[in-house]
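Section 5.1 Outputs to date
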Amino acid sequence: MRIARKEDIEELSKLRVIQQKEDWKEEYPKGEDKKFYEITKKYLIKHLNEDIIFFIEEQGKHIIATCGLQIINYMPQCVKCGKEGYICDVFTLREYRRKGIQTKLIGECIKFAQEQNLEILKLSSDNPEAISIYKKYGFEKEKLIMEYYIK
């Protein structure tokens, strides 16, 4: 396990395409792999290890699992520092699943967040297996969030 570096951006971008296709299934835009790869790569060139950190697991010289931590700085409140984390891109290649890799990566992500004095970690998931891992770490469902979708 290690933190991703700039030289990992191409492989991270490829894995994100695979992850998004799995997550979005029929809703994933057909024929858009290259475009999505390029915008992901461009984003990571600008943000990797600035406001998004990726914890990765490798097999040989290839990344097999990722766990991203997006660091968000809000205006501080009188009782809060304003630093939060959003866990994203929790993904393991199919053939390496159910081996405890994500449990380890999420643990490292939480440890890093504590070292960075983040106040809270958030995530969203509808995957029952992933939710069971998150609950083991103490994540709870939050009910105060409201969303407004701009059309």
